[in-house]
Write a structure and sequence with these properties.
about 210 residues; alpha+beta; three-stranded antiparallel β-sheet; nucleus; C2H2-type domain-containing protein; zinc-finger; DNA-binding transcription factor activity, RNA polymerase II-specific; Znf_C2H2_sf
Length: about 210
Amino acid sequence: MVTEGGGDDSGGPEPDRNSGPDFPPEPDSDEKTGDSSEPETEDSDDWNETREPQSGLNSHNNGSVSDSRSRTSEKHFICSECKKAFGSIKKLKRHMLTHKSEKPFSCSECGKYFTTSGHLKTHRRCHTGEKPFSCLQCGKCFSIGGNLKRHMRCHTGEKPFSCSECGNCFTESGSLKRHVRCHTGAKPFSCSECGKCFTRNGDLKSHIRCHTV
């Protein structure tokens, strides 16, 4: 069951019903943690365009439900499916779409569908080539704000992701995830030809060449 994710604003993009182009990832041998991070969403008042039934929206406080512009820190808006709480009716409505797999916003270029107009707007940049987020240090531009934030760490030296086992720190969560495998011994990448398993996807790709030669 899908819920709204928190954490770094570069989380992975939402799944789509239709295949189509995606943002090119930053170079990485294992995970695609580059430009394919979760798109930024905008709080645009477009929810009247959706077919969201009001019966799916339960509230801990009935008086608060009617106030769609609530900005309090209290989370009175409860999802009837997973019981997750939200601070505004708008966020709850957006979350409910993930349970219904309803994606009313479609790309006119490739036909991909999205749950919010903000996700669609961000996706369209892969067609237009627009990169509105630029680094003030080196001028490099990005199509997604989260990718600019990650890029800035190469200038600041910030490493917010630390290993609980050995204390090593990393600039990206994907790098930490790969590192943790050296402690756990996990080998999630397996060869479909011989079944041999590897810790890194890059090692698997190198191994596969021995079957294709």
